Amino acid sequence: MAILLKDITVDGIRKDMLIDKGLIARIEPQGSSALWPLAGDLEIMDCRGKVAIPAFVNMHTHSPMTLMRGIGEDIAFQQWLSRIWKVEESIDYDYVYWATKVACLEMIRSGCATFNDQYWFFEASVKACEEMGLRIATGYDVMDKMDPAEAERQKEQCIAKTELFLNGKHPGLIYELNFHAIYSVSEQMMLWVSEYAKKNNLNLHIHLSETRKEVEDCKALHGGLSPVEYLEDLGILSDRLIAAHTLWISPRDIELLGKRGVSCVHNINSNTKLSSGYCFRYKELQDAGANVCIGTDGCASSNNLDMLEAMKTSALFQKAWRDDPSAMPLDTLMDMATINGAKALRINSGVLREGARADLSIIDTDSTYFLSEGPFLANLVYSAHSDCIDSLICDGRFLMREREIPQEKEILHQARKVLSKISQKQ
Ligand SMILES: [Zn+2]
Questions:
Q1: Distance 144 CA to ligand 1 centre (A)
Q2: Domain boundaries, the chain
Q3: Cα of 60 to ligand 1 centre, how many Å?
C-alpha cells in the first residue's frame, strides 16, 4: 500500500511526500499532491505541524542485551565483560528472539529503522526483525577465546550459516560477519573470517581499540603494534570493516583507518559509563577519510538504544573535551546518525530524497521543546526526547503510527517469561 504524507515539513519547507513500493516516490511543495494521479489503496496522513527526518541507523549494538540491563553496574570494563560472558552461558534461541523483539520496540520508539548488530543466535534476531519490520545487519559471530577446537567448530558453523543466509530469502537482512575483538579471537581465526568475508563481499563488524588496556596488552603481545596497526599488518583493515569504538587511537592509527576507509562507530554512552574514555577523534578520523558513525552499544553497557540520547551525549562530550562549542556541528552529527551508517551498510537510506528507501521518522512538534524559533535540529537533539517521535516508517511501511506499535504488550509479557527462566537457571 502507498502512503501519502500531506503537508509534512522537510528541511524547513512544507511538502507532500508520496511513498510507494518501499521508496520515497515524490517530494514536492505542499499542495502538489492534489494533482498527482494516486492509486485507490492509499493511506493518507495529515502531517500538518509535523516534521520528517531520516530514520536513524544505529551502527553498533547487541540487541538481545535488552534483558541484561543492570547486571553489571558501577564496575570496570574487564569485570563487566566477565559477568556478561557468565550470563551468556545460559541464553538460548528463545531468549535472543524475545530480547531482540524488546530491542525492536525500543528502536522503533526512538526512530531507528536499521541497526548493526553482533550477537549469538543471530538467526533469532533476524526472525524477530522480520516480524517487527526493522532492517538488521548481522551474521555469524566468531569468538573462539583462543581455543583451537572451538575455532574449528565455529569455522564449520560459520560456513554453513553463511550459505544458508545468503540465499536472498531475507530482504530485511544485511548479512555480515562478526568477530568480537583482538583479545577474544585468535589470530588464525581473525585471518580466516576476514578472508571469508572478503571472498563473499561481506562487511566485517568488530570491536577495536575500546580501552587503554586493550592497546597496552596488544603492544606487549605484538612487538609494540597498536590494535589498529596489528590489523593493518594482518590485512584486515578495509572499507568493508565496521569498527566499534576506535577510542584509543594514535595519529598513525587515524591515518591507517582513514586510508583504508574503515567505518568507525562512536558509542559514547557505553564508553563513558564503563569509564573506557571519551576523547573520540571523530574530526581527525573524518578528515583522514574514515566513515564516522554513531551507535548505542548494547543495553548491558549503555542501558538503552536511544540514538537521540547518543547524539546529544556525543556532542556534549566533543564540545567539553575539545574546549570548543563548535566542535560538533548539528548537520555533521545528523549525518553520523543516519547517512554515514547507510553508506557503511551500502543501503540507499539515511536521506529524504526521491528514489531513496522510505525510512523516516515523523516528529510531533506540538510540545514545549519546539515552541522557540531555534534551529529545528538543535530543538530535536538538545531539548526534546525521543517521545517526540510520533511515527516510524521503514521500507515504506508504518512500524509505529501515532505512538502505537502492534503487539507491544504481548512482547513484554513473553520477555518477562524468558527472563524468569534464566534467573531460575542461575
Ligand atoms: Zn559492543
A1: 17
A2: 2-50+359-408, 56-345
A3: 6
